[in-house]
């Protein structure tokens, strides 16, 4: 979450600030035996009757035909919402990976279980880069497009809108190939929540390989908001990380460059971030001071390098996340209210709020369907109860007509989601065509799509 920090200097300052009030941080309990499946943060788990690992599309099709009950697939397990869990059959896409081919237009086809980081590195090796990427790249391609995962840039689309073709195995075992020529069926499958079937291949539109210049620096929070509002159209990529209690921010911009690559500095920021989160957990009265202190040790930094290396950040400190996307022009006003709410209620959260832009697209259910968006991501350290924070800010997102990220935590059901998506009912009709028996629907999907258990899907 944080740029590279000078470890020794910050460590010394934190210890002085914490003093003797903090208990030793080395005492850690032994983790319980993990369940059959759990996600990255540990807030979602499942103990299915079957946990299967198909190695090829035909094997996957056979498993679908032979199974009964609900079927869900998982990739990188980086979703925080209950979009994956089922008590029946869970399928891993891990073996369906790797670059499968490249066409004359530079479009790249991958196994759907390929992790985004591996896919973008393989694209670079054949002279291509993806149009845009998120800053976490551990997700599978299937999971990333199914949930509308995105990077930042007001003219740049989310991953779902970068899909050129898609191959999906329906719950009855039939494999279908979809392209833009298939109209709404393709646009539904590109951000399909895993509700239409199981993706086996994803073709992404590639650009000629490019390099990026990343600039990172700190500003007082109000100045950062003004800067981003005035410059969102100037930079290819722009985002910032707001610390509401400390009233500071870390700003990041990216631009195309032909300059030589700069070696990446050894990154100790994850160790520091976890230590600060532990301090904040034990001594909440220090959180505002810690937020100010951390930004004091973020130097003005510039990095040049291949696009896929600049986009990605190594994140090892676990958290839970809520993200809503509001209309792009309303984003900063919404963010101001969120920051005020956190300060007014004195909510203990060290993790900064991430703010990004994404272009509109033609998918039926991405957060950017038919409107450009400003995405506001609120995080809470995984050892802390996220509900006080998320419950406090979610009504603000909803008042700004926010659309929740499908892979992140939210409380909305179909009644409140339908007015937010012009093509919501079109998606439901196509879902019935692909999965008339509702076998791909777990309780989360039944809630967000408005399909009663035992009722007609």
From TrEMBL:
It comes from the Bacteria. Pfam families: ALO, FAD_binding_4. Residues 44-209 form the FAD-binding PCMH-type domain. SUPFAM superfamilies: FAD-binding/transporter-associated domain-like (SSF56176). Keywords: FAD, Flavoprotein, Oxidoreductase, Signal. Residues 1-27 form the signal peptide. This is FAD-dependent oxidoreductase. It comes from Alloalcanivorax balearicus MACL04.
């Amino acid at each position: 979450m944080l740029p590279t920090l000078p470890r020794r200097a910050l460590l010394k300052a934190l210890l002085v600030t914490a003093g003797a009030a903090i208990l030793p941080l080395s005492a850690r309990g032994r983790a319980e035996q993990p369940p059959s499946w759990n996600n990255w943060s540990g807030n979602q788990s499942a103990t299915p009757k079957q946990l299967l690992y198909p190695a090829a599309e035909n094997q996957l099709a056979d498993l679908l035909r032979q199974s009964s009950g609900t079927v869900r697939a998982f990739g990188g397990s980086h979703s925080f919402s209950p979009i994956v869990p089922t008590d029946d059959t869970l399928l891993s896409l891990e073996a369906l990976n790797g670059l499968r081919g490249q066409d004359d237009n530079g479009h790249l086809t991958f196994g759907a279980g390929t992790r985004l980081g591996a896919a973008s590195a393989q694209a670079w090796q054949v002279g291509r880069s993806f149009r845009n990427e998120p800053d976490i790249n551990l997700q599978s391609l299937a999971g990333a497009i199914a949930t509308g995962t995105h990077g930042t840039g007001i003219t740049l689309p989310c991953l779902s809108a970068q899909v050129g073709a898609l191959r999906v195995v329906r719950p009855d075992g039939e494999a279908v190939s979809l392209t833009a020529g298939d109209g709404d069926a393709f646009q539904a499958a590109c951000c399909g929540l895993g509700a239409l079937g199981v993706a086996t291949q994803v073709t992404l539109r590639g650009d000629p390989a490019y390099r990026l210049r990343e600039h990172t620096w700190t500003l007082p929070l109000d100045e950062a908001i003004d800067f981003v509002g005035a410059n969102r159209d100037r930079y290819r990529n722009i985002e910032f990380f707001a610390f509401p209690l400390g009233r500071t921010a870390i700003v990041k911009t990216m631009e195309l460059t032909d300059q030589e690559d700069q070696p990446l500095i050894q990154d100790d920021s994850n160790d520091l971030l976890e230590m600060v989160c532990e301090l904040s957990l034990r001594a909440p009265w220090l959180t505002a001071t810690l937020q100010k202190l951390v930004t004091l040790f973020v130097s003005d930094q510039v990095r040049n390098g291949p696009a896929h290396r600049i986009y990605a950040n190594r994140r090892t400190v676990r958290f839970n996340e809520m993200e809503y996307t509001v209309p792009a022009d309303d984003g900063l006003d919404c963010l101001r209210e969120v920051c005020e709410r956190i300060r007014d209620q004195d909510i203990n959260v060290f993790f900064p709020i991430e703010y990004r832009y994404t272009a509109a697209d033609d998918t039926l259910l991405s957060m950017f369907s038919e409107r450009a968006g400003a995405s506001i991501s609120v995080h809470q350290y995984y050892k802390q109860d996220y509900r006080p924070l998320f419950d406090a800010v979610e009504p603000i997102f909803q008042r700004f007509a926010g659309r929740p990220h499908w892979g992140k935590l939210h409380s909305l059901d179909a009644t409140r989601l339908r007015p937010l998506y012009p093509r919501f009912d079109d998606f439901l009709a196509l879902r019935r065509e692909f999965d008339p028996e509702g076998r791909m629907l777990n309780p989360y999907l039944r809630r967000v799509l408005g399909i009663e258990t035992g009722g007609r899907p």
